[in-house]
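Repro:
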Amino acid sequence: MGGEGSMASAIQTLRQNRALLKKRKFKNIKDLLYESSGKTELEFKQVSKEELFRIKQKIRKQQKQIAQIELGILIASFVLAFVICYAFYLWISS
């Protein structure tokens, strides 16, 4: 039967990856973060409530525009599919 070599290679690769994951510890990653930045916690930018409200409104407006475009594409594709099917039906029936 063909494919034994490729399956054995896939199994071996999975075992090697699993062994690498077992070696990785969260403590080592945390130490690496601390060594590179000198901090252990993340710092986020602080924004005012008004600015946060404007950002949310902008995101909602963009998502609404994207939804309208997707709906237009969906309707156009349905109409095009119907026209093609109808033309094919007329071509077959004549």
